[in-house]
Design a protein that fits this description.
- The protein contains three helices and four strands.
- The protein is α+β, with helices and mostly antiparallel strands and 106 residues long.
- It is elongated.
Amino acid sequence: MLAMVESDVVDTMLINFSVSDSLTLNFEGKEYVPIENIKVVLPDSRHFVVSKNHPEGVQIFAALNRGLKILKRRGVLKRALTESGFINKKVANWQVANAEMLVGGD
């Protein structure tokens, strides 16, 4: 994506916000700055695949779900998304460019 921006094939790219104070992404000596006050929300979810045919599939599925519930209850999942830039408090009030596409318009 960065190569496409650098070669003027595209003007912008969709990436998670940088965790830097300025939200600026520094990569290979170049700065990429977010378009201020505009963000795109990508409604999605993460999934793990566990085979029903695996001899231990039922136990693995149960253990995975127990572990995920523990991580969620302890706030580990949200912290990981925040620390990686997928959730960023600095842009909480920025306008959502694709709000009409989201369920409930939010």
